[in-house]
Amino acid sequence: MNEIDYKILVDYISQKIGIDGNLYKERPFKRRLMVRMRATGKKTFLEYLQFLKSDGEEIDKLKETLTINVTRFFRNRETFDFLERFVFPEVINKKERIRILSVGCSTGEEVYSLNIIMKRLSLKRELNYEIVGIDVDEDAVKKAHIGMYRDYSLMELKEEEKKKYFKKIGDYYYLDESLKQNVYFKIVNIKEENILFTLGKFDFIICRNVLIYFSKEFQEKIFYVFYDLLLPEGILVLGKVEILTGNVKKLYKPINVKERVFKKN
Length: 265
Ligand SMILES: C[S@@+](CC[C@H](N)C(=O)[O-])C[C@H]1O[C@@H](n2cnc3c(N)ncnc32)[C@H](O)[C@@H]1O
Hints:
The protein is an alpha/beta fold. It has helices at 3-17, 26-40, 45-54, 58-66, 77-94, 109-122, 138-146, 159-165, 193-198, 216-229; strands spanning 97-103, 128-135, 148-149, 166-169, 172-175, 183-187, 202-207, 230-238, 252-256, 261-264. The chain folds into two domains: 3-66, no CATH class; 77-264, Rossmann fold. Helix 1 runs parallel beside helix 3, helix 2 (26-40) runs antiparallel to helix 4 and helix 5 crosses helix 6 (109-122). The chain starts with a helix and ends with a strand. The structure holds S-adenosylmethionine (SAM). S-adenosylmethionine is lined by residues 67-71, 75, 104-106, 110, 135-137, 140, 189-191, 208-210, 239. It holds the Pfam family CheR_N.
């Protein structure tokens, strides 16, 4: 495969949809491009680039393949349980107002799971909080706003949570409007540092199953950005498949390594 054509294709995609292949791990990124090349019967990067420019719908299909949106409510439930029992109460007790950022929030399940927890904690004491969900994928963010889900998304929910927060109509579960309170979604690409800083500072940054797709260099850079976005003693939560490596380790103190919960140093 021609590397120059690959770079031209990567630049074109970055210009069109903002997903910059240079920041992601190269092999998996190429593999996902090839999924679309196979699906459209294109044998080289150049052929695919020409097709991409000529076919109005292909760019959306490519975006869908590149932005892996898989998510669900309370994904890896034990992490949320740990946050609810041990981490949120401690922070809440010290603060007047809590700000939470969900990075790569996809179709909203992570944000709404956090809101279920915050609502439960609000029963003990009225809480002033907001949860901001950001994602590069405009379609995912639209779905997050709507709050309409299939079975898969609810597989880790408890029966009482399903009953309390969803109404089933046909094949879909509709999120209760009360969970949309205190929640804001924005289309943001995490490579755009200046935009990230317009969001203000946060007590919690939850960035799960997003950075795994990015190169080591970009991961390190974004951990510095998160450090600046976190308030003193702010909490960073990563996905089970993600780790802090190298220089950035010194920026955060582990709270629970298994659940990937860290505190800003
Ligand atoms: C696998 S989902 C993770 C969803 C959720 N955090 C979870 O753990 O269930 C990854 C999300 O990261 C988003 N993403 C990928 N690159 C991004 C970028 N450069 N900026 C913002 N979001 C990005 C994708 O659009 C996708 O919705």
